[in-house]
Amino acid sequence: MTTQKIFMDLSNPSGLTKDKNTSKKRGGKRADHEGSIYYWKARKLWVASVRMGINPKTGKDVRKKKYAHSQKEALAALQELKVKYATVSDFEADTITLGQWLSKWIEVYVAPKVRGNTLLGYKHHLKAIVNELGCVRLCKITEYDLQQIIWARMRDKYRTAEITRTLLRTALRKAVKCHLLESSPAEDLELPPKPHRKTFRKPDADDWQMLLNYQNRKCYCWRWIILTEYVTGTRMSELLALHWSDIDIQQDERGNITGGIMHIQHALYVGEKKEGIKGQPLYLGDTKTQQGNRCLFLPASYCYELRNYRKLQLAMRMKAKVWKDDDYVFTHSDGTPISPAIFSTAFWYVRRKLGIATTFHMLRHDMASRMKSSQQFDMKDIQAQLGHSSIRITMDIYTHINEDEKRRVGNWLESGVDELLNNEKAAHKTV
């Protein structure tokens, strides 16, 4: 008696088929660790199955299975199997390469926890390692191999070396835990000399004015992006992710604008480039930190400016042949959102053209400087405005940027020393 199995295509959970060779009809075998569920009619059970690969000794498929009483339970069981066994199986330990392990580690342990642009950054930082040592068997990697790449490729890139070392340590510690290595060769990697911290270039009133008035033909909303940064101090990814539904402009009984509230709740990030698709995809995600999800108060004068900009955008929408209406505040001339990567490049070009040393991120730090200099706000207020995850970050940034405070302390000390020495000289004369 043969057992009839109903396979489920995970790309279409509602589509069930009774054909055992379903995967072949879809255009090829499922990849290892992709998994499937099917209904075992004879036992009246759902089965979650994950193919681990082929045993080199027997030539047969190696599978891990779990049984469930419902389709929903089987799907949950499949996810457990994928997380538990998607790393490597015992028979792969002697053959898996460093590149294969890093790929599996990122897919299983990193991707579910981080944002898309963070994941892209991690892959970029590991690229030099994979290019040089990706084909070497994991068990043959030595500390010397890894250290050579850090010295050769990252000698003048301290931050890149620091992140790469952290990623390698984490990935190879997991390899040890999975019994692929006896010890990690990344534990004692040394970093290149740490450079001096980049000097904060505080924008003055003229810098802000030049940025605000710059006529950018390729970005019709340039003026209002700069103005919004001045008012809010948000991260670039948060600013470009703003939707009109995130902004509440408040009016009095006569219709006069009294202010507004801006809800920062999203961030726009760049995804990994996919084959056959032009450019890098954009994704709307959560803010960088939990504290980044915040509401900011808006002054009435800014709200008037924003209302005028809204009219301009609506007029452009009426004239445009094609307009993608996704409710974004800042868009290209066809309504599509602006990529942080594209705007970052545009801002670099403009500031260099205007002779401004301040980077866009320094504009954000300038908000902290202006708030503290006003003597109306404490560090907790600044932390809430900027959406920092801890007060320590706020303190560290302010200590870094406030050169005026340091100069005032120096002048105060100098006057005190002068007074002390003058009093000493006067005492000697009287003697």
Strand content: 5-15%
How many separate helices? 15
Helix content range of the residues, please?
40-55%
The radius of gyration over CA amounts to 29 Å
Q: What is the spatial order of strands in the main beta sheet?
A: 2-1-3-4-5
Order of helices and strands: EEHEEEHHHHHHHHEEEEEHHHHHH
Q: Please tally the β strands and state the result.
A: 10
Structural class: alpha+beta
Q: How many discrete structural domains?
A: 3
Average residue pLDDT: 83
> Could you tell me how far the N terminus lies from the C terminus, measured between alpha carbons in angstroms?
120 Å
CATH architecture of the largest domain: Orthogonal Bundle
CATH topology of the largest domain: hpI Integrase, Chain A
The biggest sheet, with number of strands, parallel, antiparallel or mixed sense and barrel status, is: 5 strands, antiparallel
Please identify the top-level CATH class of the largest domain: Mainly Alpha
In the predicted model, the low-confidence regions spanning at least 5 consecutive residues are 1-28
